[in-house]
Design goal:
Elements lengths: L3 H28 L4 H10 L4 E2 L22 H15 L4 E3 L9 H10 L3 E2 L2 E2 L23 H21 L3 E4 L4 E2 L7 H17 L6 E5 L9 E2 L4 H11 L3 E6 L9 H10 L3 E6 L16 H13 L9 E4 L8 H20 L3 H9 L3 H12 L4 H10 L6 H8 L1 H8 L12
Helix pairs in contact: 1-13, 1-14, 2-10, 2-13, 3-4, 3-10, 3-14, 4-5, 5-6, 8-9, 9-10, 11-12
The protein binds manganese (II) ion.
Length: 424
């Protein structure tokens, strides 16, 4: 996809400076009792899945402004995912969305293998109507008042399991837009009961080695009440369904200023944290690029994850879920993957023994300073060295731009119309 010689030329030009920066940081960290190579190995082990839908321009309900050379098919999307992983070496899996990415499973597998990619969680879609669909989801899907509509939505999720098994996926993420726009429109208790009974049918179809992720979202498209509105409902659902059901935390799906790292801690305690959809937000569910608004919050979430990483049974599915509107999606996804990786590495630098001591002594100032000392460490040389050693690019965005990839694929990919709403 991107010529090795371009990556090598770019890396060669940056190598000496990187080596000096890495040595200097290594000296600094060793004074803190930290082995930089161990941290670099951790950076190399890090991975986050790319959402297939993130490779195109998202758009809002007002408009969508597509860029040149956007992917037209799932195979184009997998090519773009191959570029992202090839340069960052941090995104070895792709999360598919059905029916948007429906294709022959053996063709999907072949294309993924071509790029050294695998498949992450499957995502079902009962929040919009597809052409030819018999029952509309206008008034809900898994919680709809009509049994036939619920059956159709359940059937769709079972189909996602079937497709997923053929491509090596091991999880299904269910997010529904069901809810109400008016007080009194829906009986909140009965609506949840219907949702739960539909989820039980999906859970019953789950293969033994699969997990079912329940994703909550405070509002939109239902602006008055949403069926799975917060982690409380999500946890209640996962506990009712059984051991293979887990909660998925999308960072954008909370009210402003909610303490997400505390939710993470509680879900770990309950043994029900399944994974993340990473993004960032300023006001609501903005789907902004990870790490662009509140990098400290991202760090604090990773601080909880690193703290709990030896918890038996903790196996997290990390995914990006963003909407790219003004950037080249490949660049946004690369930068986001690296920002999530950065937070995970910074969190690994927290002096946990010192922190525990300060906590026991109720030394709030020094406890907080211990976290900030890790957060303020510029770990870029560690990330860049990890990428270099794994065959990626020291500077993925610069290398991507030098490759001219987007202009090249634009020659063969059809122009996308800007009309109509985007993915909202
Ligand atoms: Mn999400």
């Amino acid at each position: 996809m991107i010529d090795r010689s371009i990556i090598s030329a770019q890396n060669d030009a940056l190598h000496d400076d990187l080596a000096r920066d890495y040595t200097a940081l290594g000296d600094k960290l060793s004074r803190r009792g930290v082995d930089i190579d161990a941290i670099k190995d951790r950076a190399r082990r890090f991975s986050v899945a790319v959402p297939s839908w993130g490779t195109g321009t998202g758009g809002t309900r007002f408009a969508r402004f597509p860029g040149n050379g956007e992917p037209a098919t799932i195979f184009d999307k997998l090519d773009d995912c191959g570029v992202i992983h090839g340069l960052t070496r941090a995104t070895p899996r792709v999360s598919l969305h059905i029916p948007w990415d429906k294709a022959d499973p053996s063709d999907l597998r072949a294309k993924a293998e071509e790029h050294g990619l695998g498949f992450d969680a499957m995502n079902s879609n009962t929040f919009q109507d597809q052409p030819g669909q018999v029952h509309s989801y206008k008034f809900g899907s898994l919680s709809h008042t009509a049994p036939a509509t619920r059956a159709q939505a359940i059937e769709h999720n079972l189909e996602c399991l079937e497709i997923g098994q053929k491509i090596g996926s091991k999880a299904l993420t269910v997010w529904i837009g069901d809810g109400a726009n008016f007080p009194g429109q829906s009986h909140m208790g009965r609506q949840y009961e219907r949702y739960l009974s539909s989820m039980k049918e999906i859970y019953a179809g789950l293969p033994d080695d699969w997990r079912l992720f329940s994703e909550h979202k405070i509002y939109e498209p239902a602006f008055y009440s949403t069926v799975v509105q917060d982690w409380g409902t999500s946890l209640m659902t996962a506990q009712e369904l059984g051991p293979k059901a887990m909660c998925l935390v999308d960072l954008g799906h909370h009210a402003p200023n909610v303490n997400i790292e505390m939710i993470v801690s509680r879900l770990i305690h309950a043994g029900k944290l399944g994974g993340f959809h990473f993004n960032d937000s300023k006001y609501g569910d903005d789907d902004l690029d990870s790490g662009t608004i509140e990098p400290y919050r991202l760090f604090l979430i990773w601080n909880e994850l690193v703290d709990a990483e030896d918890t038996p049974g903790l196996d997290l599915a990390h995914m990006i879920d963003q909407s790219h509107n003004v950037t080249d999606p490949i660049e946004s996804l690369m930068v986001s993957a690296m920002e999530i990786q950065r937070a995970s590495v910074q969190a690994a630098l927290v002096d946990r023994a010192a922190l525990a001591g300060y906590q026991d002594e109720n030394d709030a100032l020094m406890a907080s300073a211990t976290l900030r000392a890790a957060f303020r460490t510029d770990v870029e040389p560690i990330l860049a060295m990890a990428r270099l050693e794994a065959g990626g690019a020291v500077d993925p965005v610069a290398t991507y731009r030098a490759s001219g990839y987007r202009a090249k694929v634009a020659e063969s990919r059809p122009k996308v119309s800007g009309a109509g709403g985007g993915i909202v």
